[in-house]
Amino acid sequence: MDREDRKTHWERVYETKAPIEHSWYQARPERSLELIARTGAGPGSEIIDVGAGDSLLVDALLENGMDHITVLDISGAALERTQKRLGRRSANVRWIEADVTRAQLAPLSYDIWHDRAVFHFLTNPEDRQRYVDMVLWALKAGGHAIVAAFAADGPTRCSGLDVARYSPAALHAEFGDVFDLVNSSEETHLTPWGGEQSFTYCLCRKR
Ligand SMILES: C[S@@+](CC[C@H](N)C(=O)[O-])C[C@H]1O[C@@H](n2cnc3c(N)ncnc32)[C@H](O)[C@@H]1O
Q1: What is the DSSP letter of 191?
Q2: Minimal CA–CA distance to 186: which of 207, 171, 206?
């Protein structure tokens, strides 16, 4: 799928389906919040949620007093949805509509990079390399990357697209030796209609 098709696909997804019609919907992103807390993040921490869609993570982070949040997604419709939901609080968030593999991010500017269910859509090695280069570019030394992807026994497709699946070791290996694996875990996500999806979460620290 080329970049234009990718954007068209995701705009259509958010223009035509309600949040609870998405398999990835979570009423509260508990595991992500736990891992973010584990990094020692506080109100001044710079955090970016890439491929955030209309996730409720930003709401929970704002409630926790974090006020240096960037939300990035390829879909403007997804960002608009979250902005409407947040109302006036959306002014406290930075919004970036971009493909994460081509985004213009400030160098060494984030303490935490968070991605749930985005990296696994990068089935082309060049896109994965661009993504990893982007994390290296944007994350501060000592910063943390939290990446959740479908596990080795997870779904083979999502939202009509092929995905790659990862064990914790395979996911960490994509990021290379510049990242220490601090923690990995598996999670069985329940879709809004009761289906089970296995996820691998990795928390890595950039040297
Ligand atoms: C499965 S959804 C996950 C959404 C959110 N992270 C969550 O956990 O609820 C994947 C999201 O990644 C976004 N996305 C897909 N490819 C992307 C890319 N190359 N760059 C930025 N966002 C992308 C989609 O628009 C969508 O919002």
Answers
A1: P
A2: 171
Using only the alpha carbons of the chain, give its radius of gyration: 16
For residues 184 and 201, what is the distance between their CA atoms, to the nearest angstrom?
Answer: 5
Spatial contact of 70 and 94, defined as CB atoms under 8 Å apart: yes
Is the Cβ–Cβ distance between 150 and 168 less than 8 Å?
Answer: no
Q: Which atom of ligand 1 is nearest to the CA of 29?
A: 8
Check residues 2 and 67 and name the one with the higher pLDDT.
67
Q: Which residue has the tokens 């984030």?
A: 110
Our mutation pick for probing the ligand 1 site, out of 20, 118, 119, counting the most ligand atoms within 8 A of Cβ, is: 118
| Secondary structure of residue 196 in the 3-state scheme | strand
Interval 92-129: pLDDT, tens: 999 999 999 999 999 999 999 999 999 999 999 999 99
As a dihedral over the C-alpha atoms of residue 156, residue 30, residue 46, residue 58, rounded to 10 degrees, the angle is 90
What is the residue type of 14? Y
User: Using the 8-state DSSP alphabet, how is residue 151 labeled?
Assistant: B
Tokens representing 131? 């993504």
> Which tokens go with 164?
């790659």
Quote the ligand 1 centre to 64 CA distance (angstroms). Answer: 23
DSSP-based three-state secondary structure for 166: strand
Q: Which amino acid is at 111?
A: D
Query: 112 burial class (0-12, 13-18, 19+ CB within 10 angstroms)?
Result: buried
